[in-house]
Design brief:
It is a single chain. The protein has 470 residues and is α+β, with helices and mostly antiparallel strands. The protein contains seven helices and 20 strands. Helix 3 packs across helix 6. The longest helix has 16 residues. The N terminus is likely disordered. Keywords: Signal.
Length: 470
């Protein structure tokens, strides 16, 4: 019977009418018009309904899209609506409504051991969520249903790349950590819980972060995701002969919607006598049996979701505007990260006069936070804009040469354990793709200051810089 049905599906390329024929009392008569059969054959998967496609609650073999393994080999192939086809004509399938088909009850599927030597950064983010954000709570992960929150709701999918590929977040979370050739890195925004785990839509009133975010390398991110994927699929170390196969319950059946499981962070592969491996092990402080949950300054979460007009992603852009775009906060800090701008005007016959202005964008309008009028500033000297009601931390500016473009900027006060500070040199560059100009990672750009007198070609230089602050 199955063979004849599949042969029919391969040959027919027209709309096919399915009629349910009652074979007893009280069964309704239904007429269903499915999608084009050929389209269905090109897109078959066990969760979709194309043409005459079954929804399976049991294991599937991977050798052919038409070969499936059911617990009961005598059961006819059901339709997506639960009917059983029993006769085919040229344009009609006769189907019997089957009241005996019962979806399997969700089940506990065991423990996924996440190898933290294989993916230390992904482990760090997952451990922070499970052991720190959710400290004291029983955390289990659930196979998602169709309404599970997507990456937009977690704050990862935005209108340009991901937050870690944007200023000011790339500046804050990646530039201080990386000194190598940054253009070769495939930096991604890691999220936990993962997309393949049941999640709720973003709730601005939630009392704790719903997702933990961290900027990590793409390879580490992929390895972490593949670990959970192999556990869910029963392959790799959870497949036949794998060292963790006994931890996966219900093998080899695939996961069904609603199945749940635990995550354990596996540290057993580290050679603690190797200095390099020992350093990585020690850095996994959120994953140890007694975790140290003090934020290292790189764990963050979305605090406000602002959707694009079509709702397809969260809003991010340049210049970053915390009133119009998604907002993000280092977990545990009292305020969201903003993009501060500092403008230094260097004027005078010997370029000795320097003025300053600090501002942010709010709903597309420059909002000034602090300023300083022009005053003499020699090489090797500095000035400080003090903290105020509008400027959360002081800003110190040092002049590094007699030229117009050599300055150092320090926001906040560095101290052991403090993370609310940031420093840079006016000639520094970062790696983030979406800076003030796409693929131009310079922290500062310069422009001529035109004199109001048209007889004077220029009267100075303006240095415009941007940095993350809160």
């Amino acid at each position: 019977m199955i063979f004849s049905l599949l042969t029919f599906l391969r040959l027919v390329a027209v709309q096919h009418v399915i009629k349910t024929v009652p074979l007893g009392q009280g069964l309704p008569i239904r007429t269903l018009v499915p999608a084009t059969v050929i389209d269905g054959l090109n897109n078959l998967d066990y969760n979709a309904t194309h043409g005459i496609t079954a929804h399976f609650s049991h294991a599937e073999t991977s050798g052919s899209m038409y070969t499936n393994t059911l617990d009961d080999k005598d059961v006819d192939w059901p339709l997506a609506n639960g009917d059983i086809p029993f006769e085919l004509s040229e344009d009609t399938t006769l189907a019997q409504a089957d009241s005996n088909l019962v979806k399997r009850v969700p089940a506990y599927r065991g423990v996924c051991k996440m190898d933290c030597k294989l993916s230390p950064e992904a482990c760090t983010n997952a451990c922070y969520y499970q052991n720190c954000i959710m400290a004291g709570q029983t955390v289990q992960y659930v196979e998602p249903h169709a309404g599970s929150a997507d990456r937009v709701q977690a704050g990862v999918a935005v209108s340009q790349g991901t937050p870690c590929q944007q200023w000011p977040f790339g500046q804050r979370f990646m530039d201080p950590r990386l000194q190598a050739n940054l253009t070769q890195l495939r930096i991604q925004t890691d999220e936990w819980p993962m997309y393949s785990q049941q999640r709720d839509d973003f709730d601005p009133s939630a009392t704790r972060p719903q997702s933990s975010l961290r900027c990590i390398g793409g390879s580490d991110n992929s390895r972490g995701g593949n670990t959970v994927k192999r556990f869910r699929e029963g392959t790799g170390e959870w497949g036949p002969g794998g060292r963790f196969v006994s931890d996966r319950l219900g093998s080899p059946a695939k996961f069904d919607e609603g199945d749940w499981y635990d995550i354990e962070f596996y540290l057993g592969d580290f050679n603690l006598n190797d200095p390099t491996e020992r350093a990585i092990y020690d850095a996994l402080k959120y994953c140890h049996p007694q975790p140290d949950c003090k934020n290292d300054g790189f764990q963050f979460h979305m605090s406000n979701l602002r959707l694009t007009d079509l709702g397809a992603s969260g809003k991010l852009g340049q210049p970053y505007d915390h009133e119009k775009h998604n907002t993000y906060r280092i977990t545990g800090e009292p305020a969201d990260i903003r993009q501060f701008h500092i403008s230094l005007d260097v004027t005078g016959l010997t370029n000795d006069q320097v003025s300053a202005r600090v501002y942010v964008y709010e709903n597309g309008v420059e909002t000034e936070l602090a300023s300083k009028t022009a005053a003499p500033m020699a090489n090797g000297t500095s000035f400080t804009l003090p903290a105020s009601n509008t400027l959360p931390q002081p800003i110190r500016v040092d002049r590094l040469s007699t030229g117009c473009l050599d300055f150092a900027v320090l926001y906040g006060t560095p101290a052991p354990g403090a993370i609310n500070w940031f420093s840079f040199n006016s000639r520094d560059s970062g790696w983030a793709r979406w800076a003030l100009k796409e693929r131009d990672g310079r922290y500062c750009t310069s422009e001529l200051i035109r004199d109001p007198n048209p007889q004077v070609q220029m009267s100075g230089m303006r240095l415009k810089c941007t940095f993350p602050a809160w």
